[in-house]
């Protein structure tokens, strides 16, 4: 679906994921490497400036550090798999 400025992908197997909020990004369950996600806002869509780009790192066990490293809800702190921010 496209609302003019954003695209919503409802297929969790898709290579590109779009999350309106940080909670939405955490709700995207485990993915395969080479997947990309865009975060459109922190608490509400467009509330944090431009979209933030992430890549899926299936090997990462980095500490959750929003907005730079995001652990999905289906992973414990000890399990690998994180959304990692692209760039600074």
* Rough outline: globular
Tally the helices: 1
Helical residues, percent = under 10%
> What number of structural domains do the residues give?
1
Compile the SSE list and pairings:
Blueprint: E1 16-19, H1 22-27, E2 36-39, E3 52-57, E4 69-70, E5 82-85
Parallel strand pairs: 1-2
Antiparallel strand pairs: 2-3, 3-5, 4-5
What are the defining features of this structure?
7% helix; 1 helix; five-stranded mixed sheet; 88 residues; disordered N terminus; single chain; 5 strands
Note down, in words, how this protein is organized.
This protein starts with 15 loop residues before the first strand and ends with a strand. It has one helix spanning 22-27, and strands spanning 16-19, 36-39, 52-57, 69-70, 82-85. Strand 1 (16-19), helix 1 (22-27) and strand 2 (36-39) form a beta-alpha-beta unit. It has one domain. 18% of the residues are buried. The chain is mainly beta and 88 residues long. A five-stranded mixed β-sheet has the order 1-2-3-5-4. The chain is globular and about 30 Å long. The model is unreliable at 1-10 (pLDDT under 50). It has one helix and five strands; from the N terminus they run E-H-E-E-E-E.
Quick recap of the structure?
Helices cover 7% and strands 23% of the residues. The chain has one helix and five strands.
């Amino acid at each position: 679906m496209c609302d003019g400025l954003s695209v919503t992908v409802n297929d969790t197997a898709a290579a590109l994921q779009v999350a309106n909020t940080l909670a939405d990004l955490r709700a995207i369950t485990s993915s395969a490497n080479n997947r990309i996600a865009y975060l459109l806002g922190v608490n509400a869509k467009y509330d944090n400036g431009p979209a933030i780009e992430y890549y899926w790192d299936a090997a990462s066990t980095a500490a959750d550090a929003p907005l730079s490293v995001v652990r999905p809800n289906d992973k414990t702190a000890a399990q690998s798999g994180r959304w990692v921010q692209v760039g600074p």
